[in-house]
Amino acid sequence: MSHDWSALAARLKTASGPDPAIDVVIAEAFGMPMAAYSESAADCRRLVARVLPDWRLHLGFDGAGGRPYAVVSNADIRVEAEAPTVPLAILTALMELASLKTD
Predict the structure, then answer these.
(1) Which of 44, 70, 74, 77 could cross-link with 55 by S-S, CB 3.0 to 4.6 Å?
(2) Residue 22 maps to which CATH number?
(3) The model scores a pTM over 0.85
(4) Whole-number Å distance between alpha carbons of 35 and 12
(5) Spatial distance between the Cα atoms of 82 and 90, rounded to a whole number of angstroms
(6) Residue 9 belongs to what domain range?
(7) Above 60 in pLDDT, residue 30?
(8) Which residue stretches of 20-85 are H helix?
(9) How many structural domains compose the chain?
C-alpha cells in the first residue's frame, strides 16, 4: 500500500480538532473501517493496536499539564508527537512513524 505519509503527518500537525476528512484518509490508508479517529482516543488506540500489534503506545501531558503527547515505541525505535488533543497526538505519532518506515 503506497501512501504519502509525510503529507498526512503535515496535515495532522495543523489540525486543531476533529476532522472527518482526515478520518476518511486514515481509514483508506490503513484499510480500516471508518471511525472518528481524529476525535476518539479509543478509536486511535484500536488503530495502533491493529497496525502495530507489538508496539507500545504511551500517552501523557506536557509538564504544565496542557498539551497531550503520544509516544509509539518498539525496541530502539521511538516516535513522539504532541498535539492539541489526545487523538491528534496519537495519529501524528503514528503518521511520523509510517513516514520514517517508508523513507
Answers:
(1) 74
(2) 3.30.2120
(3) yes
(4) 16
(5) 8
(6) 5-102
(7) yes
(8) 20-30, 41-51
(9) 1
